[in-house]
Design brief:
- This protein is an alpha+beta fold.
- The chain is built from 3 helices and 4 strands; from the N terminus they run βαββααβ.
- A 4-stranded antiparallel β-sheet has the order 2-3-1-4.
- The relative contact order is 0.33.
Length: 101
Amino acid sequence: MTYVVANRVFVKPDYADEFEQRFKNRVGQIDQQPGFVLMEVLKPRSDDTPYVVLTHWQDEQAFQNWVGSDDFKLAHQNPMAKEAFLDGGGLERYEVVVSAG
């Protein structure tokens, strides 16, 4: 079973470049986590749609281990200003039922 976490983040247009750059600067870091499968950062095509950060894990425990890791703390230690974000969004958790590709 693959476990997927979707983080929906409403970013104000003026902060979009900074938001994206933060992920680009850390490319390869999450890959080192046991049980990590894939990460995608999806950019919205309209201002009223959130970014979606998808992480795929071998199982829920692998995700929980990452959340408790030093790497997670490092990745989240210097957050963007609160005014960069709009209300809404949040974490959603899923199990993959069908995958094709």
